[in-house]
Each structure stands twice: as C-alpha cells, then as structure tokens.
Amino acid sequence: MKTVFVLNGPNLNLLGTREPAVYGAQTLADVDLLCQQACARHGFALQFRQSNHEGQLVDWIHEAGRQHAAGELAGVVLNAGAYTHTSVALLDAIKGTGVPLIELHISNVHARESFRHHSYISPVARAVMCGFGVAGYGLAIDALAQW
Ligand SMILES: O=C1C[C@@](O)(C(=O)O)C[C@@H](O)[C@@H]1O
C-alpha cells in the first residue's frame, strides 16, 4: 500500500476560524477526514500533518523522499501556506528528494495580493491547484491515484 503525505504549513491549524470568507468554515480536522476518505477510495495510506515551522516541513519532505526511494510513496500534497512565497529551503527539499508533489492552495492565490502570486514551489511541483476550497485536497489525492 502506497502512502500519501498531506503536509500543511503555517496557520493552517487555524482553519475554521481564520478568515472564513477566504478559507471557509471547515477545520483542519475536517480536511484530515476528507483526505482519509479520499485515500480510502484509492487504497492509499495517509500521513496528514501540519506544522508552523519551515524546518519541520523540510524534514517531512525528506521522510517522504525516503519512502519515494523505497517505492512506497504515492505522492505529496503540500499546502505550504505563506512559506510558498518565501521558502527556498522547501524548493531545495522537493528538488533534492524528487518527490512527486502537488502544490495546493485553498484560496485562489492569483486573485489575491501580488505577493501571493509568486511561488518557490511551483517550478518543482508536478502540478499546482488553487481556489477549489478544501475540496481541492480530495481532488489532489484523486489525481495522485492516476499518476
Ligand atoms: O496560509 C496561506 C494559505 C494558502 O496557502 C491557501 O491555502 O490558500 C495561501 C497562502 O498565500 C497563505 O499564506
């Protein structure tokens, strides 16, 4: 059974109360459940995690990379939050491990402030999705099942 890593970056622990007009009313626990259901549809195991710390996200990408090397990884779905727009370290981790990765954003970042339009992740992501709300997580896992 292959594993999907769903990694969530800073402030995503506040989903449900954080800017609900932008991110919706569902909590991170709701997103975890949605991902469990999507993984169950495809026979994937799930590692669903959140951290406010950039280095922790780097360590988790390395962990996913070791699973990838062992042929045990279906892919990574990464919502790096604000680190998307700042983190060379995440870019290097994704590039260095070669993990197949979908960059995900709940909101349509391109319809928001210009500083959200640039992503350090996009050039090393296999695919990018934004603006589907939390439903995007399920859609991303469905896409991994076709890779
Ligand atoms: O924290 C977030 C969440 C986000 O990644 C999204 O899911 O829409 C978009 C980012 O610009 C923002 O910093």
TrEMBL record:
**PROSITE patterns per record:** DEHYDROQUINASE_II (PS01029)
Residues where substrate binds: 79, 85, 92, 106-107, 116
Please name the GO terms that the record assigns under molecular function. 3-dehydroquinate dehydratase activity
EC number per UniProt: 4.2.1.10
- In terms of superkingdom, the source organism counts as Bacteria
Q: What class of enzyme is it?
A: lyase
**Which residues are named in the active-site annotation?**
23 (proton acceptor), 105 (proton donor)
According to its UniProt entry, what is the function of this protein? Catalyzes a trans-dehydration via an enolate intermediate.
What name does this protein carry? Answer: 3-dehydroquinate dehydratase
Recorded source organism is Paenacidovorax monticola
